[in-house]
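Quick one from the shared queue. A colleague (R.T.) flagged 3-ketoacyl-CoA synthase as missing a structural entry in our internal table.

Convert sequence to structure tokens.
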Amino acid sequence: MLKFATEVYQCLIISFSLHDLLLNLSLFPYTVSFLLLIVTIAVFHFMTKPRTIYLLDFACFKPPSMCRVPYATAFEHGRIILASQPKSYEFQVKIFERAGLGEETSLPQALHYIPPDPNLKDARQETEMVIFATVDSLFEQTGLDPEDIDILIVNCSLFITSPSLSSMVINKYKMRSNVKSYNLSGMGCSAGLISIDLAKNLLRVHSESNAIVISTEIITPNSYLGTERSMLLPNCLFRMGGAAILLTNKRSLRKQAKYSLLHVVRTHKGADDKSYGCVMQEEDKDGHAGVTLNQDLMLIAANSLKLNISILGSLVLPVSEKLLFVINLIQRKIAKQKKKRYIPDFKKAFDHFCIHAGGRGVIDEIQKSLNLSDDNVEASRMTLYRWGNTSSSSLWYEIGYIEAKGRMKKGEKVWQIGFGSGFKCNSVVWKCNRNIEVPKTGAWADIIHKYPVFIPEVVKL
């Protein structure tokens, strides 16, 4: 009886197995089709997903002590050079006293002579000093060699030479013959972020590549030697500086990388005549070349920032802030209620802010516009105080300051804001990949313990 039951049970199992097999065979085409669809979607997503761009490391130039320009030197040189124009000298002193620069900013050697008489040779010497020292530091920090570089981008707005600055770098470091090189000029203080955007686009096309971005402004041939007030202001603000940044799309280097690139937002107001002409390189009535800063500059910068953050906000702000902004907009535009425009709290989207250190007024205006605290703008103010306005490289001195203070932690987001002639406002957002240890070398390494410092509204000597 038990044997019979066992045989019946086995027959039933075989019967069910055959039934399942036939059922599975009938569903096989649908199963294969479904699996192929899933694989196709996955492959399509993988192929169309933008490559992640990593920031491996960066280096900032530290001028030698012989280039330092303390207050007394700046005032004395100004007094001698503008001896025949006392009103111009008084104006320059007034600006300098309120500029927010400290005693350790630097100018190239050619501008220390009285009167200064810069030439092309002097400009090349400054270029080599700034760029080569910075790139040397970058290679040392990353452990890469010149032959590892696939893309090279150099931005310098006012000094244009032939061969180009990018060719100067290729020649110095004997880079490969197939390196893709670019030289950006005339794009103002926000050119560094434009270079990052160009590097991003190139790295998304060229797989397994490394890119170096070099940002600087060569001061030697661009110091104004005339007496026009609107053109004397840059003399009080601009100082030596430069930065070299190494970007990569190699997944093998992602653990070594400090940051990942999240967003680049560029806005250009050049179609508007006032915006286009608010920062202009030109000659005065005596033929002296310089950069004119229009009195509407701050207003134009503020309007450019509003346009830029209206785009950036949609990408980075939490839903709660977007909702508050929309409600406020409806109340003002549709319900016609007399309410102030709601300014989103960008502190909920970012942990660190790097505002172009163009001058005290620039930092003050953005701090007010975005409701930022003094701590939020500390890196920008200290960069302006210690290094002056180093043009497009100032944003990297600011990130360097945050790192040197040991404040950059894994997962935190950094917002770089740059302004430039034309008129442009550009934003770049980075995400920190790991806790950044306090660097033992670099522009801030041996002086960071002195900062922050109190900066008076007016420096009287």
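The chain is about 45% helix and 15% strand.
Residues 261 and 430 are 5 Å apart (CA to CA).
Added to the table.
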